[in-house]
Amino acid sequence: MTQRNRVTYLAASWCLSYPDQELMGRIPLIRRALAEFPGLDRPFNDVLQELTTVPLEESQARYVQEFDLSRRHALHLSYWTDGDTRRRGEVLAGFKQVYRDSGMLVDLHGELPDYLPMVLEFAATVDLDAGRKVLTDYRASLEMLRLALLEDNLPQAAVLQSVCDSLPGKSPTDRQEIMKMAGYGPPTESVGLDPYDPRLLPLAGGQQ
Q1: What is d(CA 42, CA 34) in angstroms, rounded to the nearest whole number?
Q2: Quick check: 119 and 204 in contact, CB under 8 A?
Q3: Cα 122 to Cα 13: distance, rounded to the nearest angstrom
Q4: What keywords does the record list, in alphabetical order (predicted)?
Q5: Where are the domains of the chain?
Q6: Residue 104 main-chain phi, psi, to 5 deg
Q7: Measured on CA atoms in the order 3, 203, 64, 77, is the torsion positive or negative?
Q8: 145: Cβ contacts below 8 Å, ≥ 6 apart
Q9: Counting beta carbons within 10 angstroms of the beta carbon of residue 178, is it exposed (0 to 12), middle (13 to 18) or buried (19 or more)?
């Protein structure tokens, strides 16, 4: 189960990242790794199929539209729980502390530390237990994102479902259940969310 989770998280990290030539070169590796576990490839097939059949520039434009320009599909975990409130700075510091505690250098590449592909790659390649704890703590964020992707009929919804299925408990069926899981309502204070550069891909490794 440990190795299955690592493969799930790394494949999910890459499939939720901005599609570029580096990602395209990783697709055969992703397929081989997923094939080692019966049935694990199913949630990823639609994303991988789209990446291999749609022109790269078109895939990039879709990604920017759906994930960079739309808060509805925000890939930053604390955005779903804290929005753009002042409390979020403290929350982001907590993510950075998790990375520091691992004893490894996690290169943020200009990204916020709660960027989901980065958290997933950290769990897969640096500290599985610590990464899973973050994912579990932010399960409500994952479920809100999953539901938004599902409602908009985006193939990444199945990728999010695979991540949620790796965590304890069943996925909620609607937003009311998700908010109940989170234990509080949505944040109301907003100070503005700066757009981030979709070309930045998170990498983990090295001594801090």
Answers
A1: 9
A2: no
A3: 9
A4: Nitrate assimilation
A5: 2-184
A6: -115, 150
A7: positive
A8: 73, 74, 75, 80, 116, 160
A9: buried
Per-residue pLDDT of the chain (208 residues; tens, 9 = 90+): 899 999 999 999 999 999 999 999 999 999 999 999 999 999 999 999 999 999 999 999 999 999 988 888 999 999 888 776 678 888 898 998 999 898 876 666 678 899 999 999 999 999 999 999 999 999 999 999 999 999 999 999 999 999 999 999 888 887 888 877 766 544 443 333 333 333 222 333 333 3
- For the record, the structure tokens of 33 come out as 């790794």
Phi, psi (rounded to 5 degrees) for 203: -130, 145
CB 149 within 8 A of CB 84: no
Long-range contacts (CB closer than 8 Å, 24 or more residues apart) made by 160-163? 160/12, 161/43, 162/8, 162/12, 162/40, 162/43, 162/44, 163/8, 163/9, 163/12, 163/120, 163/135
